[in-house]
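Memo to structure team: turn this sequence into structure tokens by end of day. - J.P.
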Amino acid sequence: MKESQGHIIIVDDDLTNLKIGKSALSDVYTVLTLDSAEKLFRELEEQNIVKPDLILLDLDMPGMSGFEALRKLKLDQETQEIPVIIVTGMDSDAQKLKSLDLGASDLIIKPFTQALLRKRVDIYMSTLVMSNIGRRIRISILREITEQIERRDGEMGEHISQLDSSLKLMIGAMRENERYAIIAQRWNTADILQASALHDIGMIVVPEEILLKPGKLTEEEFERMQRHVPVGLRMLERMETPSTARFFQLAKDVVAMHHERWDGSGYPKGLKGSETPLLGRLMALVDVYSALRRPRPYREAKSRDAALAEIFALQNVHFDPDLVEVCRSVADRLP
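Reply from structure team:
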């Protein structure tokens, strides 16, 4: 059996159009056909579904319209990067402009032939593949640099693993928390975890004698350590392209803000309270917790209870007090 070249969902209330679409595409792509936007979102909410590479979406449907579905897709960070091609019989400039303004990648006007649909989808998928390859190459290079840092600091790999597990738990709890649910539900967890792994990428310029010093840093050494933030930002900016801008902005936010503190005593900008965006405040807390759980040249690794005691003691000082309460709610499940 030929390997699938991508996963496509077609959403249309007209069963004839669904059959035409599946017939045109299913020999090359894995195609799922759905007859309503409501069914689309039920599918996307399933934990085990493969995120589609492309959605073909009709506009004029009973219940949730294509415009409403498109708006909902683009407001949710878990789905906003899925390309959507509008397939519609409404051939007015106003409808086309509204679709594009809401985030559609392209439009196909009905009626269409199987050959035309196949050609348009093939062209779009080829472009998408090249864009994804470029993003993967850039992220792979940055991860290799991160691994170079890990080889200098033998415990860094464990730190990244701790960070991943802790972030997943915290984000899950935030999605069930009335204060944070709306924002956290829009976050793309996979992108956040990828970005978080790059948070200390600028450490590549910090000398080993500072990185591995078995005692307190001098004022001059601490200033050199702080330089890893602007260096990391410059590295990410040089790798960024228009097609990767959304991910790299996320990564830059993580690098720039994970050393800010609730009371304004952090760096590089000394942001205070909610001046630091929510993701930065979360990253600051989880980074410190994960760091406390691993051994350093100047101290033993702390137990979970001891690490949490330090986090709780710094509530409303270094850390957002409400996020500390979220941390309390998952304390017994943290690694």
